Amino acid sequence: MSLKEKLIKHPLIETMITVRGNPRVVLYTEPLWIIPYNLFIPFVSVYMAALLLTDRQIGLVASVLMLFRAVTAIFSGAVTDKLGRKLTTFIFDTASWSIPCLLWALSQNFWWFVVAAAFNGLMQIPDTSWTCLLVEDASKKSLVKIYSLLHMFAQVAVVFAPLAAILINQLSIVPAMRILYFFSFLSMTAKFIILYKYGDETEVGRTRMRDTSEMSIWQIMRGYGDIYKRIFASKDMLLALAISTIISIIGMIYGNFFGLYVTGTLLMDEYMLAYFPIIRSVIIASILFLLQPKLEKLGFRHPMLIGLVFFVVSYTLLIFTPVGNFYTLHILILCIIIDAIAFSFVIPRSDSLTQILIEPSERARIRGLIMVIVLGFSIPFGYLAGWLSDMDRRYPFALIIAFVVLMFIIIAANKKGLDALKLKLMQTKDFDEEVDHGKQT
Predict the structure, then answer these.
(1) How many angstroms separate the CA atoms of 433 and 435, rounded?
(2) Whole-angstrom Cα distance, residue 40 to residue 395?
(3) pTM exceeds 0.90
(4) Burial class of residue 361, CB neighbours in 10 A (0-12, 13-18, 19+)
(5) Contact at 8 Å (CB) between 46 and 270?
(6) pLDDT tier at 5 (50, 70, 90 boundaries)?
(7) CATH classification of 18-211+221-434 is 3.50.30.20, yes or no?
(8) Whole-angstrom Cα distance, residue 182 to residue 352?
């Protein structure tokens, strides 16, 4: 068998070729969003600092973003059901990404970033509608492969980051970022238009639109009280919420203050920030391809605990990295490698916990309400991390370590619940396999 034939028969490549309907349109248009996003995201906080924002102001912008995400998450399920998955995705993708990209490109001071964060916070609405658009008409058998492809696209897109590094090296951070943001506006807007033109409303979406056609958004939301009760009555869901909230806080702190710490304290050149995500992506992609099937047999608890230990090691090394000498770059690379290993063990499992527990018929509303809770708890920590960073740029990473330890304790204390969830998932997989086999025969 030739190399070409082997590649075509690879499960992920085969899925990408054979998938149809909304999943196909979503997959094929995703590079138009993920590539520009990866071009600018490593440099956001450095760009803000170059426009004379303080660390505390950068943290406050992060909290404003979380606040608007939390508020719009309340309405995300109702809006998605009322307008439909397709129209909701188009309107609010444009509002939450196209408009902020233009604002970021033209930003002059702190208030520009606050307004952009408010628009960007609308992302929680298309996050819900886009997910429904992707999964509701897809077969369960192909869903894991579709998500794997999306994740792999995100890793592959990172290889374009050196283009941003070259631009920054040539023009300096501010003019280079203005160009990158304007390019992102064009590319992302094209993606939203294509997805709207060639995507279709899902069957569940059409049903929910009919059911809610005579109802206002407020009437649709009246049932939220019962859904909240169901969420808080489930020990498994509370565990998933705790884990998701901690990961949200960690991601916000790391995303906003890693670049500042590396360039401002460790004295690395700004363009180097483009290369660190490449190292990270290579490690994550390798582990997902080579180890993930074996790790799945271990369930949730043990891989997550191992990954959290790796997180603590990575952030501890980062805090004690020497400044501006021969070892600085080498230790930074080691930190990123360990962080990537930790990510591969922890994040796929934490992401899947909530999805496994969500009732499919109420996916839009439950997902929206879960994000309200997660983001609501996350809001204060952007400003808190900025306040700590103003004192010492190592302190936000000490805060991350504290949250990782808390997450370790929570998972370690929930052995019975996670083992039961593992058994439930295995039984579900066995049932799905029997059904698939019955259909084939």
Answers:
(1) 5
(2) 25
(3) no
(4) exposed
(5) yes
(6) low
(7) no
(8) 34
- Name the residue with higher pLDDT: 48 or 224: 48
Q: Where are the domains of the chain?
A: 18-211+221-434
Do the Cβ atoms of 375 and 73 come closer than 8 Å? Answer: yes
pLDDT band at 239 (very low <50, low <70, confident <90, very high): confident
Mean pLDDT across 264-270: 90
Query: Per residue, what are the HEC states of 221-281?
Result: HHHHHHHHHHHHHCHHHHHHHHHHHHHHHHHHHHHHHHHHHHHHHCCCCHHHHHCHHHHHH
